[in-house]
Amino acid sequence: MTCAQTSMPIEALRQSVHLVDAPTVNALQHTHQVLLGLADGDRPVYLPTEAGNILVATGAGGGTTTVLRTLAAQALHHGAHVDILDIGQRRPSHQWAASLPGVLVHSSISEVHNLLVEMLDRLRHQDAVPPADWRRRRILVIEHTDRLLYGLRQHWALTRPESQLEDAPGVEALGMLLVAGPHAGLQIAAGSTHLPPRLDAAVSDVFPTRVLAYAGQTLWARIAPEVWPVPPYSVIPGRMHAVQDGRATRFQALYLSESQARAWARGTVPKEYR
Question: Is this structure's pTM higher than 0.70?
């Protein structure tokens, strides 16, 4: 187990990171990477350039939806296609994305099942996509991964009760997309409020970037076992850790409201920073 230290003491970080802040806009405008937030000294924390998968595990009310919205808006800003899987919600979590060009929101479990199976079939015939080629990249945003996996299994049990398959095709397709998708420019950003999704592969193998907040030792042990000691808990909204390459970096997450996410997805920059 690797001893991974956080970057700086908690006091060195901002209390909030918004689109109207000059350091935030600066960090967003001068890169084709996706910004997670700002670490100590307003140091940007980005996702890697390549299309690696991201797991966002913040606990209930910890900011999972906000992080996924912020990532999706930036991907659209860079020219990627985005699919948002948001099932089983009385009020959809990603209404901000409705009718935006380049994004589709899927709320039906049968629709999601078919989408995943079709994506896996297309993946078998796709060539590698260069890391910087955003217009050929596809982002799959999953709001509640555990709920989705349960729904896919229930859907298959109800529609194909005679099936002898060990698992639902939608679940198997998702597992294979997590493993093979990044090579073809498919990047999955999965939200999980409690435990990591139950898939065949180890969490650290399929999610090279993991974002945690409000995380106790049990969650850290399951999602980021290479990090020890477990970083201290924080009650500041938006205070999170990004686990990459065996290290945990404390940062304040970028917050985009629904209207800001729509604007940024369309390529709009606040007037004062144009």
Answer: yes
5 domain residue, yes or no = no
* Angle (CA) 191 193 199, round 5°: 60
Question: CATH code at 252?
Answer: 3.40.50.300
**Structure-derived torsion over alpha carbons of residues 46, 94, 141, 112, reported in degrees to the nearest 10:** 180
Number of domains the chain is built from: 1
The per-type count for the chain, helices as H runs and strands as E runs, is: 8, 11
Which strand (E) or helix (H) includes residue 212?
A: strand 209-212
Give me the domain span that covers residue 122.
Answer: 10-265
pLDDT of residue 235: 84
Extract the tokens encoding 149: 């996996």
**3 to 48, 54, 217, 227, 228: CA distances (angstroms):** 22, 22, 15, 6, 5
Cα 100 from Cα 265, distance rounded (Å): 8
Q: Is 85 among the domain residues?
A: yes
Q: What residue type is assigned to position 112 of the chain?
A: V
- Taking the chain (274 residues) in consecutive chunks of 10 residues, what is each chunk's mean pLDDT? 46 85 88 93 94 88 90 96 87 88 94 96 88 92 91 93 86 93 94 66 86 82 87 88 93 94 86 59
167 CB-near residues (< 8 Å, 6+ apart):
153
